[in-house]
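Subject line: Sequence and fold of a protein, written as structure tokens
Body of memo: The sequence and its backbone structure tokens, given next.
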Amino acid sequence: MLDLERVFAEDGPLARRIPRYRARPQQLAMASTIARAIEERRILVAEAGTGTGKTLAYLVPALIWGGKVILSTGTKTLQDQLYHRDLPTVRAALGLAVTAALLKGRANYVCQYHLERSLAEARFASREAAAHMARVRQFAAVSRTGDRAELPDVPEDSPVWPAVTSTRDNCLGTSCPYYDRCFVMRARREALAADVVVVNHHLFFADLMLRDVGVAELLPACNTVVFDEAHQLPQTASLFFGESVGTGQLIELARDARAEGTAAARDFQRLPEAAQALDKAARDLRLAVGETPGRWPARQAMERPGFGPALAAVAEALAQLERLLESQAARAEGLAHCHERAVRLSTLLARWRSEEADASVRWVEAFPQALQLHRTPLSVASIFSRQLAGPPRAWIFTSATLSVAGRFDHYCRALGLDGADTASWESPFDYPNHALLYLPEALPEPAHPHHTEAVIQAALPVLQASQGRAFLLFTSLKAMQRAHGALKEALARQGLDYPVLLQGEGSRSAMLERFRNARHAILLGSQSFWEGVDVPGEQLSVVVIDKLPFAPPDDPVFAARLEHLRAGGGNPFNDYQLPEAVITLKQGAGRLIRSETDRGVLMICDPRLLTRPYGRRILASLPPMGRTRRLEEVLAFLSCPGHTRRE
């Protein structure tokens, strides 16, 4: 049995394999705690500050003692990094004969059936789409995995991807003529046979609830489950433990019913007519809520003129298509499968329209081209805790942001982790000397109509001192847009030609690449840039946060949960709003210091940190930075690498 102290030593096997490796006491302590939890089949909630090296801290004990292991990450990017880089590194360093598999959702794999059908239909919107289709065909012919991540020259947003991948709804399963060569099934078989399987949170929960592509089959034989970026789990679980039906699913069903009818029931003209009627009804439903995207409670949506009749028209068109598909289902597997989908969507739609009282909230979400009808549980604790039942196994939940002022009550309560062990390790980085928390004076309250402009005015001298090299993080897209205009005007008045990048001008990865390559860049972002962003070095020297990230009170799910807590005798602010804001703020603050040599200023422009009693609780949750309210202290800190301040 390998000794953890030797594994993590300065001259140990990890050090010999990893360039610039440094032994960290926090990492060894975390690995030891996880090893005990694995051996004793315990539930462990483990918070590790930035720089602890939590990936190695859970990989080493998981590979040595974990048995059959599921590793779940927050994003597909982290999933790929874990599988292609971190796992092979640890496996090689420890000399372990551990097999590993990567399992993604079916939309990530080329579907041979839909590829061939799309090629036969030859309906390409442009020459570019036709070229993309040709590349996918070439790729599918030679790829072992069919994973679209291995085909970067076809953009992620190419319109060909929905046409050449399957969904749970339109997969033919064992009746598919390409079943023996199916990339999804191959990935699933490899996952079932592997010692370690890498998934992401969305796949974990989607599959757990829908029994779709393998996780539900993996769990019975699994000894250890590790959730990295575990702070995302309550929100992800809410998404998948609920139900939703969308116009995209309805339009896709109509499209597939037309195609299957053309192939197997060409003489039955009523089928394409019914499919066309459903397509139109679904599009009319999206138009019924107006052009502007948004979220509304079901009651509020139903009060909009035209929404109720449009919803009834969808239900009627879906029921008609369902009846016609049933009459033709015996003619082909594809038609039978379309009928099953129609039945399933009809059931979901009927449940959403039902006003029967239960512990969930019904709401509507409108996107530019689509609309979703959601039913979301008010709490996922009881549902999730049931998933932890069954044969004893270790469940490890880890992230840099799980506690509030050192306590894990909120997180454990959200997921029903009664009796879980908890542990926390501070970052090994020298925050007191390398980071300064700046709380500027004389700023108006966040509700003031000119708060955003005041933030820019307060930030301008700091941005001049740092020569750009900053993130400005906002709690709303509206504030971000206003700040963008105000900042560009302020920089122009000062004669400063710093590149100003705005979220939405490209993909997040493209925006980060531009930021890293433009020496004096300033990036303005909203939710997308509060977490999962890593820019080490002096290129990011300042992070400005406009206000405490309390969730908007008009969000239908958030508002319903607050009311549910209030009705149960709880305190919605202390029990839910404040802890959620603290965890989000910790994520935003975590963008600043990403390596041992980083130095920087965190500027929070919300006077409530000092004027409200809850401010102390929030400040106690942040890393132990020096703190100041004086601009001259900030300018001195940024101009002199040796300048430090302790409070």
